[in-house]
Design goal:
It comes from Ixodes scapularis (Black-legged tick). Belongs to the SMC family. SMC5 subfamily. Among the domains are: 174-197 and 825-866; 350-391 and 606-676. The chain is built from 25 helices and 22 strands. β4 and β5 (90-96) form a beta hairpin. α23 runs parallel beside α24. The longest helix has 100 residues, at 681-780. The protein is flat and about 165 Å long. 21% of the residues are buried.
Length: 1039
Amino acid sequence: MAYSKGSIVRIKLKDFMTYTFVELRPGPSLNVVVGTNGSGKSSLVCAICLGLCGTPQMVGRASHVGDYIRNGAQTALIEIELHNPNARNYVIERQIFPSKSAWKLNNIPVPQKAVEAAVAGLHIQVGNLCQFLPQDRVADFVKMSRQELLEGTEKAVGTRDGHLLHARLIQLQHRQAQLESEVRGQRERLDQERQKNAHLDEEVRKLQEHRDVRSRLDILRQKLAWLDYDSTRQAYEAEKNKLREEERTLKARLEEQDPLKQQLAKMAAHEEGLRRLDKSLKAEAAAALKKVENSLQKLTDLSEQGGAVKRELERKIKDEATRRERIDRCKADIEGFEKELGEAAAESIESKLQEVQSEMQRCNQTMTAISRARQMADAFVRERQRQSAALEEEMRRLKDQSNQRMEMLRRRSKDAFSATQWLLKNEGLFAGKIYPPVMTQVEVPDQRDAKYVEAQIPFRDMMAFVAEQPEDLSKFLGLVRDGQGLRINGVVVPAEPLDAFQPRLPLAQIGPLGFRGYIQSMLRAPDAVMRYLCKQYRVHDVPVGDERVENHLSQIKALGIRRFYTHNQVYSVKTSRYDSSRSSTMTTEITQPSLLTVSVDMSSLNHLEQSRQALSEEIASKSAEVKELSGQERAASSKLEECRTAKKGLMAEAGRQKQLGLLLDQKRQALQSLQRQCLDLDRERAEAAKKQGSLCRTKMVQVASYVQRLQACYQNHRLCVDHRLEMLKVAADRKKLEDALQLALEAHQALESEVRARRESVLSAKREAQRKLRQAQEAIGCPTNISQIPPSVAREFLQLPKSVAEITQQVHAEEAKLSCMLPVDSAVEQEYHRRQQDITQLEGDLGSNEAQLAEVAEEMADVSGRWLPDLERLLERINQGFQRFFQALGCAGQVSLYRGEKAHEYDQYGVNIRVKFRDNERLTELSAAHQSGGERSVATVVYMMALQELTSVPFRCVDEINQGMDSENERRIFEMIMNTALQNSAQYFLLTPKLLPDLPYAENVTMIFITKSENYIPDWKPESLAGRAVGLAALAKRL
């Protein structure tokens, strides 16, 4: 079977979630991905979703894409290759950084929008639960509302126009409701506004009369404002004339400063020339001084060279005298060595050395044998002594722990302690065994597990005595509790043997969920006590885990574990007696242990005592043997020491003779070397005298040069001093000119300050005149760019008095008339006219909205006619497939269109799924309230297969949909998926943690197994295994 367009050909992951590196090539049809929980199956689904432009919210796990980077890595890589039958395959690469992602399409960097367009063009919808259903979103599929399910169905199997028409209908429905609401409101408001305006006509007439009086008062005030402006303008013109006169005076004072500035500039130029000349003279003087210093240094060097020649000659004379003395000493040493060698004994000592050597060899062999035997005996004794000390230390530790345990019992319950002391003295009164309180019998090897044991066994039973026979318990309680008044309690050992208490789930099955053992494995106790704890508190069936358990709570609940422990908490799961699918979980913090903090093992204490006695006997036996061997070793050592002394004397004599010969040869060689080193002192004295004469002649030449350079240096410094005096005179003249200019500048600045003050006064007068002008312009309402009175206003002003006093008198008269009128609210007229405008506006808006409402109703009827029949036919086809699949399961199902409670509520249209799993039931809507998790999973898969018959998508993915299914339903669902995949060209991914036995497999099924590994194989080459794999279907045929 060939790949369809857009199906997944290859998946490569690097540093993604749990994967360091993996490359996967799925088959073109059904791919069954099998792996235990935590192996990385769901990581593969996450990679497909995120690699095809999905978001973390679609996966339902981490909320940020950076959380999918493997711990310890900086980036993660997802590479997915999609089949393209017409050209090169599509290769999409997403590199994930902590805060961003980088995309590539066919190895070319592109923005995410380009990748989204390519994925959409292949009809891939990772966000549609009808096509792509991750493990953490399975529950979301069942929780989808009818409307959400219809939207997902339209996107998955409907036409693009169908989904768009539905969206348009919903938009038109909302627009229709909005328009109808607006029309009702506009009609009501229009009637109200018309009634309000009918009551305001009389108020408007009174307001007009009031306005006429105010108008006459306004014209009087307007002319008064223009007269005020004219007075202010005349004052401004007078200030402006004074400013012009002062500015002319300031200009004249400024022109008087120019001659002084010109003279100062010329003097500055002359002073600059003098500074440059001064710099040149300083350089020449420094150069002359440098030459004098060089000549003086050369004279010093020549004197040093003369002294060196003299010192070298004196050294050579001294060396020659020393050489002659050394020759005389060498000759005397040679004569002494020759004489000593001639007097030495001539007889050989070689034979004596050989005899002594043979005797030493025999002694060494004897010593070695005795030493080896003694060392072995010593080692044996030391090892046994070490073992004995370790046993004694362990016994002291166990005795101390036993006393601590009893002391703790005394502190926690004095009655139980007293009863225990009585029991230890009177054990012979009873037919069977009665154990002291449980806390003294339970041992916890790892103290970190003590908190779990104490949390599981209540304090009352920790203080309880355990009897093997009920009669002994009754007798014990009568003697102690009734006879002595001690408040204690006791229990009887159950009849079941210890082997009868086995965990319901083996540890190998729950270990991957984070559990490391059951409480029974974390404690030691006598069989009778352990049987009681298993019977009463099920310590054999309560597991303990670490922090990983909290990541698998849903799977743990599905396994039926009702009580379990994590690192610091205990979980208790209670199931409703009325509905087994409903449960509640209570979490409690584990407190620190207080009773089992000290562990005692009495059997080990007895065993240690027996071992210590056996070791003591072995140590005594071996110690006697060591003593005897030590005496033999001392005798042999004494004889060996005598041989060594003899050998040492012979070796010293032989060495002495050899050393004298070597010294004689060395002295003869030294004498010959000293004789060859003879030095001609007369020739050396002549050479030294020649060098001294040459140095004296050179020194005389340098003295003459030094005198000439010293005279030139003096002349240069004289010129520098004369030039510096001239510069001081020019600087003094420049200072006088600067002082004169400064006085002129200060006079100019004083006058300039007066001019600035005058300008401020003029500016203030100007602003005041402008302000008065604006007031006058505002009074008559003319534009601000007009400074003259408009003709129409001027004609009105001519009819008024010309003096300010007469105008003021008429203003008072009009104000008195205005005050006699009743107060009129000008807002009444404004409200009247505003309401009249509103009425006109409302009439226009009402007509427009009524026309739009008619257009929306017409468009809704047209769009509904094009969308609803196609949708009904589509759901009918889905219903046929859904019913057929459910009938194959021996159940019943139905898919129908939900139309809402009112007509034309297109936003309430949805898909209604109804199922029946038992004959005595009716069809009920699919929901968590009516069906179990397994039944909902069956319905989900069947609905997805019904959709698959109606559309062509590149691939579908379902992650652990079989959770909660029984084996029969799981087998039937698998057969349906496989048959559907055979009839459809779409690729299929089915993820499951396990496989049922004897499942039939078709040729198109690709099995992918994922497992954990502690080691990574860096040189893994999957292509080397090509042709060697055997498909499950082919294997089944051979069997």
